[in-house]
């Protein structure tokens, strides 16, 4: 019991150290992934911070042999985004007039940026939910196909296939809208 | 012969590799150059990928990231403290197994019986947090004995432990904000504050001062000598109370005496002049009462001693106390031989090995304490 308990404490400490070491690399990526889903920069930063606090709280339940820790963080991020979207359903898509305008930016360039964002967002909505999640995790979250597969319980081959199909569809949609 | 599915799989892998490379910051062209045979098919797909990716430009703010990191670190430390409180070392010793527990207990009892009970090992520990408005002020002073033999006498204090008595015996620890003091400036009832923060209310029964080094410069010869310590931990058993709504000022008095036979100097605690009931004149770190033409103990707040503070640029070589801690870290500094240890009192950005950093503070013996540090980015 004592030795086992000590092992548990050591493992917990090891997991905490790993989580802390992921902070610098993954905070920005998780914030971008969240931003691509909710379209609010301030909220995305705050939720990214929440991801690490939630992870710390639930660290005891995290098993090394399951999914990689970074993929687990995105699972937490996904759940927080779902909760957030439930609260503010109107932000499910990113309408042009709700996107933040940064101070000091050229208003014409800002408007063009928002039009482009809206265009891509509309194309994204035409993907299947799984394709959309693969695109978000790969392009904005920066996860590898293997990590995405671990998170979505798919093989990395299946993820690559979904990714290719998603990009082909996006390409068609974005080109036809030009 | 290659089947259709194998070809498709291969194509998916190439596309996947290119996406990884673009995610890492490489250009689309770089990937196309490496796969000239797929150039025509790859280009439109990678362009679509890039268009999607760049449609959501977002660089999280370093300030907000640092704020959330601070929250995370605080939560991490709190979680570890909770665990430490739940599980004192004693429970491990007795908890190895049912078989070993009685054996361990006998050994522990025998050791305790022989050497006396060591409360430091048995008591739960709590780390006290520094706060400028805290309810407890810890000061150091010097009772006049052989101190007049010294031009300066520098004491490095690494830790202070307060033992809370009563039913819930507990050890409260803190690292002083000012870790080096010159006792020659603190003679008589002059005392220097080295820490202020919050400690639990209650009756305290013992105070331990962990001293890492004491050196003195003799007035007559100018020779620098090492002062002997009876122990690395100097203990005073003088009960005092920390009460609600009051600030307790505890003066820890030390004195240096010359041993008769050997002529060696020894530093020891002076119980009669120590305690929470002592009158004292508070000496601020920047105040130099007598101009002896020497530098005072390391000022912890560089803002309080602008004349000694310098600005340094360097690169962090290692975070010395775990990846999640803000300081201390070691770094290289232009014009300084060997690595320098930095303890940051004010920090902007997140330190990590390889990061460029601007440090403002006083460099003494390859250490900068109480530094203002600004992390500028990865080298």
Can you tell me about this structure?
The complex is a heterodimer of chains A (178) and B (379). The N and C termini of chain A lie far apart (67 Å). Chain A has seven helices and no strands. Chain A is globular and about 65 Å long. Chain A is mostly helical and 178 residues long. Mean pLDDT of chain A is 84; it is low at 90-101. With 379 residues, chain B is of the alpha+beta class. Chain B is 25% helix and 36% strand. In chain B, the strands form three sheets. In chain B, strands 1, 4, 5, 6, 8, 9, 10 and 11 form an eight-stranded mixed β-sheet that branches. In chain B, strands 2, 3, 7, 12, 13 and 14 form a six-stranded mixed β-sheet that branches. In chain B, α2 (28-34) packs antiparallel against α3. The longest helix of chain B has 25 residues, at 62-86. Chain B is elongated. The two termini of chain B are 49 Å apart. Chains A and B meet through α1, α2, α4, α5 and α7 of A and α1, α3, α4 and α5 of B.
| Average pLDDT number of chain A | 84
Largest sheet of chain B: 8 strands, mixed
Mean pLDDT figure of chain B: 75
Rounded to the nearest angstrom, the distance between the terminal CA atoms of chain A is 67 Å
For the secondary structure, the number of strands of chain A is: 0
pLDDT < 50 stretches of chain A: 90-101
């Amino acid at each position: 019991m004592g030795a086992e308990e000590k092992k548990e404490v050591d493992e917990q400490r090891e997991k905490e150290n790993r989580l802390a070491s992921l902070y610098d690399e993954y905070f920005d990526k998780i914030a971008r992934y969240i931003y691509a889903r909710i379209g609010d920069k301030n909220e995305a930063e705050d939720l990214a911070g929440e991801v690490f606090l939630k992870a710390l709280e639930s660290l005891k339940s995290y098993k090394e042999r399951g999914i990689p820790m970074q993929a687990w963080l995105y699972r937490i991020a996904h759940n927080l985004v779902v909760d957030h979207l439930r609260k503010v359903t109107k932000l499910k898509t990113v309408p042009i007039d709700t996107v933040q305008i940064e101070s000091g930016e050229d208003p014409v360039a800002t408007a063009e940026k928002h039009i482009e964002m809206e265009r891509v967002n509309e194309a994204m909505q035409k993907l299947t939910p799984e394709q959309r999640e693969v695109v978000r995790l790969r392009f904005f979250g920066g996860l590898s196909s293997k990590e995405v597969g671990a998170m979505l319980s798919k093989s990395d081959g299946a993820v690559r296939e979904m990714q290719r199909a998603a990009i082909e569809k996006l390409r068609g949609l974005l080109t036809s809208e030009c | 012969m290659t089947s259709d599915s194998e070809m498709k799989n291969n194509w998916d892998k190439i596309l996947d590799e290119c996406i990884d490379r673009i995610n890492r910051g490489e250009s689309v062209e770089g990937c196309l150059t490496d796969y000239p045979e797929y150039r025509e098919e790859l280009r439109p797909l990678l362009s679509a990928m890039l268009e999607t990716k760049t449609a959501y430009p977002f660089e999280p703010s370093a300030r907000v990231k640092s704020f959330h990191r601070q929250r995370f670190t605080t939560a991490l430390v709190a979680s570890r403290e909770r665990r430490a409180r739940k599980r004192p070392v004693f429970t491990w010793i007795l908890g190895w197994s049912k078989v070993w527990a009685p054996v361990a207990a006998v050994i522990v009892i025998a050791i305790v019986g022989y050497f006396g009970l060591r409360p430091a090992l048995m008591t739960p520990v709590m780390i006290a947090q520094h706060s400028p408005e805290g309810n407890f002020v810890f000061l150091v002073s010097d009772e006049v004995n052989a101190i007049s033999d010294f031009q300066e006498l520098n004491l490095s204090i690494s830790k202070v432990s307060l033992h809370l008595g009563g039913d819930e015996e507990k050890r409260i620890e803190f690292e002083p904000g000012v870790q080096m003091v010159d006792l020659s400036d603190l003679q008589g009832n002059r005392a220097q504050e080295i820490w202020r923060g919050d400690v639990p209310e209650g009756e305290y029964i013992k105070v331990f001062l962990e001293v890492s080094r004491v050196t003195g410069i003799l007035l007559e010869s100018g020779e620098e000598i090492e002062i002997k310590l009876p122990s690395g931990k100097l203990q005073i058993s003088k009960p005092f109370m920390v009460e609600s709504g009051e600030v307790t000022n505890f003066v820890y008095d030390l004195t240096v005496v010359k041993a008769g036979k050997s002529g060696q100097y020894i530093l020891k605690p002076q119980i009669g002049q120590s305690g929470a009931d002592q009158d004292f004149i508070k000496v601020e770190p920047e105040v130099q009462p007598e101009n002896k033409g020497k530098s005072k103990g390391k000022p912890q707040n560089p803002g309080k001693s602008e004349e000694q503070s310098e600005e340094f640029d360097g690169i962090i070589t290692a975070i010395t106390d775990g990846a999640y801690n803000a300081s201390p870290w070691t770094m290289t500094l232009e014009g300084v031989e060997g690595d320098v240890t930095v303890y940051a009192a004010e920090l902007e950005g997140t330190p990590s090995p390889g990061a460029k950093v601007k440090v403002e503070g006083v460099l003494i013996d390859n250490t900068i304490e109480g530094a203002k540090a600004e992390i500028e980015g990865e080298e």
